[in-house]
Amino acid sequence: MPEVQAREMEPGESHEDGFRGASPEPIPIPQWKRRLFIDRPADLRSFVTDLESASVLAIDAEFVQNYRRRGPEDPAHRLTLLQFALDNDYRASYVVDALRLTDLSPLAAPLERASLLKLFHGMSSDVRVLASRGLAARHTLDLEAVSRSLFGQRESGLQAMLARAANIHLDKSLQRSDWSRRPLTPAMVAYAARDAEMTYALYRWLSAHYPHAIAAYETPPDETPPEIAAWIRPYLDNGRGRPIELALMEAGIEDDRDAQTSDLRLALAAGLRPNQRARVMRLITELDLRDLIPDLRPYLAASASEERAGAARALGRLYDAASAPAIHALLEDPIQDVRQAAQTALGFLEGPASSRPALRPERRNGHRIWSSAAPEAGEAPPDEPWRASLRARFALPDGGEAS
User: Fold this and answer.
1) Angle (nearest 5°) at CA 346 between 343 and 350
2) How far does the chain reach from its first CA to its final CA, in angstroms?
């Protein structure tokens, strides 16, 4: 594997001053005996047979922009390769040519099999391109989400995680190759297979040392969705583009603060993944639901970094002065994301009271929004330092304005 180069790291070394904690002992990277390139239907069927005895399958995908004239429902990307590594004692990894094999349906059954755990590292884009070929994975685990929860956003990439888990530098020089070209070079096939192999190796390291994080993000095939209000559900995975006032209006609770508080309290306590719970905290903040401050405080000591960071941000923006000591302690958190969230929160808590906007709901042009409260009629603006300095410089009387 010439593209993977060993590099020694110091114990507790951080990437760009990110993670400051100690890491478990790194592992030697296993060597796969063969890499099999599959571009014929018979070989694909043979691979599917090999999958019958597998219990763990690492998956990666390569795709290109779909430049063909396409309709609004056509996929934006075209799948070119699928790469697999499985628990077969490192006998072989597999690269499937998704361009030459127009029929990938033999993969449907193993990908949907409940007893087979499918590993991804950053699964959202891979899931989309799989769906474009009629394939769906059940019983999944996103190792990027696990890594982000343990070490923070800046160190959740596969390259950074392999430096931590195995003391190696991952060569990404072929990352932007044209994966639609044929024939592929041997180096391109090796590069493609390696990402699936490294995903599998990383899983072995994470599951050995952080089983609680693995359990938090594993999606079992029979998982029952948590019982939370329907208007909250779109925000759990990606709700940034959906106006909160629209969701509340559709639920009929735009003017019912008690209902909002009750729904979000139940969601906060539901069996969500840490990143989903952090999004619930963001909703609480946006709605300025200060009655939920006591519910947020315990998450400052949560094991997941997203929950600690989310709680710090929320409690800071809700101006919970009682949480200041606990938030201040997070300035020494090993995760940079948490330290940054704590610093932001303390900026709100320690700033002058006159600069803290009190959020309040109001209607503008028929829409309900949350905005800073405007001064009451006849109320003078605060005597901010820059105003006093300007008046002194130009010898203006109090309350005067320069023309």
Assistant:
1) 140
2) 72
